[in-house]
Specification:
binds D-xylitol-5-phosphate; alpha/beta; eight-stranded parallel sheet; binds zinc ion; 8 helices; TIM Barrel
Length: 237
């Protein structure tokens, strides 16, 4: 039996977390409202530093704009940056609820996760497609969420890497064997074609950027993604 994470009291999983990386920044507030009006509870923010990943996105000002556009949303902030410990207080102040840091970007990840908790936020650890799960094994008791990258981070709109599904399945087993309750998130290349399978593997949070913000009708697309995720997870215990 799955041990529920305390966040399950406020949110139902699986959930869809639109990544605003793919939003139109001339009307960010409108794009975010289109999500929340369609039943979205989690918003994913992608922070890229041009060093850890080969692209620069945005910083805490945009996270704060998202917070103001969606005062009640759960803001899931994914830091793809070196030295994340230097910036976590800024993102906390901007309105983040959860901060994920990359195992590959921080030699002192245990300490950083502790600092995120000290700030009163939920803690996440993210891993790249080429990083084995064993790289995060020791910190699993210290996290609320594991973000499994299903693309090489840095850009939206990339193709889903199927081996991420095996990582999800192994994490589900580990979680049970270790008696832990962290949430499992997948990030990259999620769309209507793979949502059902990804949810069926046991994923709790499905990040979707271009498939949400690139859709003609965002509301319809979000409804469809939610439906597929719920169908996929319906056979899980
Ligand atoms: C990739 C980011 C993802 C990305 C998802 O580096 O972490 O969150 O924005 O975008 P799509 O859904 O377009 O792959
Ligand atoms: Zn992300």
């Amino acid at each position: 039996m799955k041990i529920p994470h305390p966040l399950s009291e406020s949110y139902s999983f699986p959930t869809i977390a639109p990544s605003i990386l793919a939003a139109d920044y001339t009307k960010l507030g409108e794009d975010i409202s289109a999500c929340t009006e369609s039943g979205v509870k989690w918003i994913h923010c992608d922070i890229m530093d041009g060093h850890f990943v080969p692209n620069i996105s945005y910083g805490s000002l945009i996270v704060n704009a998202a917070r103001r556009a969606a005062p009640d949303a759960f803001l899931d902030v994914h830091l793809m940056i070196y030295n994340p410990d230097r910036y976590i207080a800024d993102f906390a102040k901007a309105g983040a609820n959860l901060i994920s840091v990359h195992a590959e970007a921080d030699p002192h990840i245990h300490r950083t996760l502790g600092a995120i908790k000290e700030l009163g936020l939920y803690r996440g650890v993210a891993i790249n497609p080429g990083t084995p799960l064993t790289a995060i094994e020791e910190v699993l008791p210290e996290v609320d969420l594991v973000c499994v990258m299903s693309v090489n981070p840095g850009f939206g709109g990339q193709k889903f890497i199927p081996s991420a599904l095996q990582k999800i399945e192994r994490l589900v087993k580990w979680r049970q064997q270790m008696g832990l309750n962290f949430l499992i998130e997948i990030d990259g290349g999620i769309g209507l074609a793979n949502t059902e399978n990804v949810a069926a593997a046991g994923t709790d949070v499905l990040v979707a950027g271009s498939s949400v913000f690139g859709a003609e009708d965002k509301n319809d697309q979000i409804q469809k993604l939610f439906q597929k995720a719920i169908i996929g997870s319906s056979n899980l215990t």
